[in-house]
Amino acid sequence: MRPCMIALSAVLAGLSLPAWAVTADELVAKNLEARGGAEKLRAITSMHSLGKLRLGGGLEAKAESFALAPDKIRFELSLQGLTQVNAWDGAQGWAIDPFQGRRDPQKLSGDDTKDLALAADIAGPLLDAQKKGEKIEYLGTEDIDGTDAHKLRVTFKDGDSRVVYLDPDQFLEIRVVDHRMVRGQEQVQTTDLGEYEKVDGVYFPFEQGQVHIESAELNKPIDTGIFAFPSSTPAKR
Q1: Is the pLDDT assigned to residue 10 strictly greater than 80?
Q2: Which domains does the chain have, with CATH numbers?
Q3: pTM for this one?
């Protein structure tokens, strides 16, 4: 009887194992391939997108972004004749926030620019992570709205991290959770992603939390001046 018991124990143990074992490197490779391939992602020089931010109660604001590889980003949010601007030039962040009564540009502290610096990486942190000084770990799976998603944790050079949830079939991001230390306190931000569309051979999520992207274009000229802290003469786009 003992050999039979051993065999049965092995079968039961096998049932508790995943159908196939994966590593962080394998998941990253599958994600990059699903998005269009690492080479196409590396070839992106700029991105311009236009969409809307859903504010609730049927109210929507125009949302527009300009990104220039490798490290520049500008977001504009327009509503009722006012436009809020948040920008990162690769070294300094700044903002104009007329909704808070601040119509003149204000420089931002380092902690307040973390989300901008991360967003400026057009291809995202999973591409060439080692070269960027990032660490990626596989955390297993977690149920996300009925999907048994793979979890990857990206730890950045400054100690902040992002948990990326990948669809187990398509290997595209369906949720990201950012953990940032801001003025000594951890801030956690969750963004659900979906409605992927192909832009010049690369897939991007057109649903990003409360933001719906209506159009996007890659590798078009963008004036670098729009990312710099404004001088007396406004930069042209």
Answers
A1: no
A2: 22-227 (2.50.20.10)
A3: 0.87
